Amino acid sequence: MARVNEHYLKLNAGYLFPEIGRRVRAFAAANPSAKVIRLGIGDVTRPLPPAVLSAFHDAVSELGDEKTFMGYGPEQGYDFLIDTLIEKAYAPLGVRLNRAEIFISDGSKCDTANILDIFALDNKVAIADPVYPVYNDTNVMIGRSGPVDERGYYQGIVYLPCTEANGFFPDVPKEKVDIVYLCSPNNPTGTVATKAQLKGWVDYALANDAVIFFDAAYEAFITEPVYPRSIFEIDGAKRCAVEFRSFSKTAGFTGVRCALTVVPEEVTAKAPAGERVALNKLWNRRQSTKFNGVSYPVQRAAAAVYSDEGWRQTKAIVDYYMENAKIIREGLAGAGLTVHGGVNAPYIWLKTPGGISSWDFFDRLLTECHVVGTPGSGFGPSGEGFFRLSAFGNRDNVVEAVERIRRNLR
Ligand code: MLT
Question: If you take atom 6 of ligand 1, which residue's CA is the nearest one?
Fold first, then answer.
């Protein structure tokens, strides 16, 4: 008799974004004349930068010619992209990496989930609350937790509350954990960690023999250079951290799919007999077996992001989204809401007015303003009473959404 993975049955609801999509579709079907503005899921709206598109086209054409055609690429990614990242993305930060430490993939969502393959089930995992739901749900799916309690916490996972009181950055726990997920600039709160805050976690990880999973998918949106873009800017991080980065939001690749994971050769964890094993070796083994790499044209397009022209165009798109963030932040603060984030991240995290619940505010905005956002409680119990708006919309829609919300709050 075939049996299912029982751990999936512990998950208490559908994945957050499809659930929001379902509610929005139901509303739109019942109200066909409503012009619904979607600032919920962080999906980009600007087209690919022209230099990126042109490299993409050229690479597709190469596949149409016998002399330049290629089949399987390296599972870890092509050297031309890896070398570009070493030189253009990391060297300017003072971070030196070698080719074997960068793995190209089809997304950070997948990588942050798949990396769990190489860790023992009895590791103690800590995640922020609120958090990008993938970190929580994939640990539940793999069997690292017990059932969920009435507050929404899964037994066995350590939750690190991120509240106004701690500036939405998790304090290191008193107890010992083995793996911790950090995300900066943060999804969902839109806040960004300082070097000192990350140093606190690196020191903790080194002292407790823990590994940090650092999700830097939004690093391109840091506008104040004082903030670190990579955990490897922190001394000691190469001995305890794995970093995830993505082209999705940076360069409009949410539909194209390209990301990278950096697993430094120095990061190790313990085998059952006590010897140290390099995570890089295990991740390479995992990827070589379960993944056949990202397509050649996509990797050419990704490398073009870092060409002079490509970078100028990419940066202009990032600036466009950050201007949206400013419009949302200032427009809603001006209407009396308490807003966080939106300065070094494309998300605005606002306190719901009058203390109403996150889902009640979601319903109010959807039915009265025809604006979609994401309820803070969908990211974890500590997100209750908060609401996330994404800055990835097009300008006219963003301006109109802010205007509609302001009118509604009057
Ligand atoms: C979000 O809205 O949180 C993101 O778009 C989700 C993702 O990147 O997978």
Answer: 42
For ligand 1, the distance from its centroid to the CA atom of residue 109, given in whole angstroms, is 8
pLDDT at 15: 75
**Does ligand 1 have an atom closer than 6 angstroms to the CB of 246?**
no
| 55 CA from centroid of ligand 1 (Å) | 26
The hierarchical CATH code for the domain 6-47+309-409 is 3.90.1150.10
Mean pLDDT of the chain: 97
Identify the CATH assignment for 53-307 out of 3.40.718.10, 3.30.2350.10, 3.40.640.10, 2.60.40.10.
Answer: 3.40.640.10
For residue 188, report the distance from its CA to the centre of ligand 1, in Å.
Answer: 9
Cβ atoms 263, 242 nearer than 8 A: yes
pTM: 0.97
User: How many helices and strands, by DSSP H and E, does the chain display?
Assistant: 12, 15
Residue 185 in contact with residue 167, Cβ under 8 Å? no
Condensed to tens digits (0 to 9), the pLDDT of residues 150-197 reads 999 999 999 999 999 999 999 999 999 999 999 999 999 999 999 999
Domain ranges of the chain: 6-47+309-409, 53-307
Return d(Cα 376, Cα 337) in angstroms, integer: 15
For the Cβ of 113 lying below 6 angstroms from any atom of ligand 1, the answer is: no
Q: For ligand 1, say whether the CB of 245 is within 6 Å of any of its atoms.
A: no
Where do we find the tokens 């107890």?
175
Query: Could you give the CA distance from residue 168 to residue 345 in angstroms, rounded to a whole number?
Result: 13
Does residue 110 line the site of ligand 1, with CB under 6 A?
Answer: no
